[in-house]
Write a structure and sequence with these properties.
258 residues, alpha/beta, Rossmann fold, 8 strands, 38% helix
Length: 258
């Protein structure tokens, strides 16, 4: 594994980690997490691919205290590709990371050779957040709002409902986060801002796309159906062995990046 830093066009310093060799795949973590959340997918895929897992802007070591936009986040992926001298790359995301991946595919179509969306959460600006998502975001934002003054420990009660093994890993991640960045990110997520206006906009995404439906109220399974109905070259995956299914999908995608 190799850790490295790169700079966004606005000068923000961003962190990433890469492992493996082969075609390039960028994996993007969800909200209030960092690159470590991608490890369950990144580690098995590194046998066949060059897997890059950045800390998104305002997450992990990529501290950021200004206002967030989807275009900023998408342009960070383009900056990462330039830093690594990659003209084409596959981009995947989980949860909030699917929104960044979608925006990158819409904003930088020549860059994204394949798209992987695991547990998508965004339905478009015309639909906004679901009631379950609104409740979850309200709770997260209330805790994150206290983090800059009360410390990052203000987020720990959010982990109470997780299984013990997962809770301990999540606790380690949360305690390493920058409080001001957390507040910025949670404010953006709770705003309900979406990476596209309507599902019809997704017709512009022509690269092969693999969709993995969500399994909880914040990641409703119907979202995968909605996206698949509008992305022209999309497939829904329900495989039990997700890394194997992703590897097969990427290997078959045309115009694979070097």
């Amino acid at each position: 594994m190799r850790e490295f830093w790169f700079h966004a066009p606005d000068g923000t310093r961003l962190f990433a980690l890469e492992r493996g060799h082969g075609p390039a795949l960028v994996l993007l973590h969800g909200g209030l997490a960092d690159h470590r959340a991608c490890a369950p997918l990144a580690e098995p895929l590194a046998d066949r691919f060059r897997v890059i897992t950045p800390d998104l802007r305002a997450s992990g070591r990529s501290h950021y205290h200004g206002p967030l936009t989807w275009d900023l986040l998408a342009d960070d992926i383009a900056a990462l590709a330039r830093h690594l001298d990659l003209a084409r790359l596959a981009v995947g995301g989980t949860s909030f990371g699917t929104g960044v991946a979608l925006r990158a595919a819409l904003r930088h179509p020549a860059l994204v050779s394949a798209l992987l969306l695991v547990h998508p959460v965004h339905a478009g600006a015309d639909r906004g957040l679901t009631p379950a998502q609104e409740d979850a975001m309200r709770t997260i934002d209330a805790a994150a709002h206290r983090a800059p003054t009360d410390g990052i420990d203000a987020l720990l009660p959010l982990l109470d409902t997780l299984p013990p093994a997962i809770r301990e890993r999540a606790r380690a991640v949360v305690l390493s986060l920058d409080p001001r960045s957390v507040a910025v990110l949670s404010r953006f997520m709770s705003s309900g801002d979406q990476p596209f206006a309507t599902a019809a906009d997704l017709a512009a995404i022509t690269c092969p796309t693999l969709l993995v439906p969500g399994i909880d109220p914040e990641h409703p399974a119907w979202l995968a159906d909605l996206l698949a109905a509008h992305i022209p070259n999309a497939t829904i995956c329900a495989a039990a062995n997700l890394p194997s299914a992703i590897g097969t999908f990427l290997a078959a995608a045309p115009d694979a990046p070097p």
